[in-house]
Amino acid sequence: MNKLLTVTIMTASVLSSNAGDIKYPKAPVSDTVDSYFGNQVKDPYRSLENDTSASTLEWVEAERKVTEDYLSKIPFRDNLRERIKALMDYKKSGIPFKKDGKYYFYENDGLQNQSVLYRADALGGPAEVFLDPNKLSDDGTVALTGISFSNDGKYTAYTISRSGSDWTEIYVMDTATGKLLPDHIEWAKFTNAEWDGDGFYYSAYDRPAEGKEFSNANENHKIYYHRIGTKQQDDKLVYEDKDHPLHFHSASISDDNQPLFVYGGGEGLGSSLIMRKPGSEEWITIEPSQDYEISVLDVIDGKMFIYTNYGAPKYRLMTASIDAPQKENWKELVPEDKGVLTGVQFAGDKLILTYEIDAQNKSYVYDITGKRLNEIEFPAAGAVGISSSKKHDEVFYSFTSFTYPSAIYSYNLADNTSKLYKATEIEGFNMDDYVTEQIFYPSTDDTMVPMFITYKKGLKRDGKNPVYLYGYGGFNISLTPGFSAQRLLWLENGGIYAQTNLRGGGEYGEPWHLAGTKQQKMNVFNDFISAAEYLIKEGWTSPEYMAIEGGSNGGLLIGACVNLRPELFKVAIPRVGVMDMMRYHLFTIGWNWASDYGTSADSKEMAEYLLSYSPIHNIKNDGTKYPAILVTTADHDDRVVPAHSFKYAATLQASDTGDAPKIIRIDSKAGHGAGKPVSKVIDEYADIYSFLFYNMGINPVKK
């Protein structure tokens, strides 16, 4: 049986995390100064933006040595790694989906770096390996990111990512035999394979300059058609927009002999949409702007089913004829409701609509006329994923919550009943010992913000409980309840996990999102700071036991909030964060975030606003005590390039912010996070939790 860990508070004579004696590497410095509408802004660590230069590589290796030296001295680091490994060592199963009479599902036996795709003739029957991404590399750093079957089922295209990069490669195999075909697509990005006849559409960029694959701005996204058995160089260019080189373009087609839809994004809050009918070369404009979210779910008997927030900030379902597809001709099928409509899918001749109400999911069955028939009853408050198809009546869904590992259910459309198909068991951990509650707290402007708090039953509000506060707050993304095996380590050691639903997210529709964008971005930081203040005021914890973490846009959140209120936090973990708000739009796809952030080139007012909270530009240098900070990034992160974290860490280390450590963990052969092998996840969280406990003076020990 796995041994649990308990908390011991250690005295300073036993455990000291002060970093006054850390000798940080000296970063390469320049006298670079940028002018933003007459405002002169220094950028002394500009050279760190060149991630392949000798000086940057030398600095990176020196930082890695400092970080490893610091972490290696934490006495319980190895024990935590083993405990996380044990907690993650359980069978994980994905939702089954049916294709051409066979069932497919992902499964991981526990510690496999990547989940394996299996195929079976019958549910619960013998299954064969259909595609094992663990065999695509020696170290698990090649991830399977998607599969797509041809309409006749003969071929399967699959997409992969190497070392966590956003760059996508497409391969094709014979579905029946699993034999790999010679077809191979490179330099694709943000795409899958959309089958049409004996080939597929995909989106790609021109081959980038050597050495700049992971940093240069991506421009001129194009759509191509690849015919099976031909070379990529012979693929047909289907669509490009030379007038808008920074737009994304993606193709969508539901079946052979259906209209081809092309979405455009990257400039507004939604997507433009054009259409081409079968056999035609004429593009029909459905929506020219990128002002609204628009998604054509399917076309049935010439009728388009459209999911959109046009005229409905919380989204609704519309229909239109392919002969009159413009939005002025749309008809409402399911109107906007009190919850945010987050998903629509066909299930036989029915529809399943999923809503988000106070950051929790509810799903309902509708008939094709838009009449609500039933609610699918879930086991508790949480989040779901649904697998269904218009080609059959079988429905499966996964359910998860903070203390509820993902379980798979089958759902019967005819009698509105669910049946447990696969449960998840984690040895040595009793979920019934823990509880989650949702509270609403006031932000600085009295806006009520929801937050989930998960903790062990019987916990006392004595102000001494370690808290792990997590947030994101951006890009219309909602934080719903979800299970994390590595998080169990925190909970079993008396820790509280708090997840707050900040403005900027999608929890309450587009108004909630917009309230955290551009010159309203300070609302996001105020919401997060107010969450910390609430937890302290209500006796859950105190600043000495407050840890904060966020990734990507959430990394920006952590960097900004530390600058604003450093005294509130003991430890901060900004992961793969957007830290230079003045220059973020100049790298890879950073320009795509302008709809949320605005850019320093927009106007004097926008530049000044960005500068007022940009993490690297607002680090104090006057002796103000900052929390212990562990910055994380990775060498193949081409979403938020590591230069953000490099420059942030260099600025921190050169500033007078007290004796708490300010170190950076730079992973290798890893990217922004998606597809990271299990072995790397274990190592990363062993370091994060070791850093957290160590700097709180808490020693998790075996009992």
Molecular structure report:
This protein is α+β, with helices and mostly antiparallel strands. Helix content is 16%, strand content 35%. The strands form ten sheets. Strands 33-34-36-35-37-38-39-40 form an eight-stranded mixed beta sheet, with helices on both faces. α2 (77-88) crosses α10. It starts with a strand and ends with a strand.
List its traits.
10 helices, single chain, 35% strand, alpha+beta, 703 residues, disordered N terminus
Topology:
Blueprint: E1 5-9, E2 33-36, E3 39-42, H1 54-72, H2 77-88, E4 92-93, E5 97-99, E6 102-108, E7 116-120, E8 127-131, E9 142-149, E10 155-162, E11 167-174, E12 180-189, E13 194-196, E14 199-204, E15 222-227, E16 236-239, E17 248-252, E18 260-265, E19 272-276, E20 284-287, E21 294-300, E22 303-308, E23 316-321, E24 331-334, E25 340-347, E26 350-357, E27 360-367, E28 372-376, E29 383-389, E30 392-401, E31 404-412, E32 417-422, E33 434-442, E34 448-456, E35 467-470, H3 487-492, E36 496-500, H4 510-514, H5 522-537, E37 546-551, H6 553-564, E38 571-575, H7 594-597, H8 604-613, E39 628-634, H9 643-654, E40 662-667, H10 678-696, E41 698-702
Parallel strand pairs: 35-36, 35-37, 37-38, 38-39, 39-40
Antiparallel strand pairs: 1-41, 2-3, 4-6, 5-6, 6-7, 7-8, 9-10, 10-11, 11-12, 13-14, 14-15, 15-16, 17-18, 18-19, 19-20, 21-22, 22-23, 23-24, 25-26, 26-27, 27-28, 29-30, 30-31, 31-32, 33-34, 34-36
Helix pairs in contact: 2-10
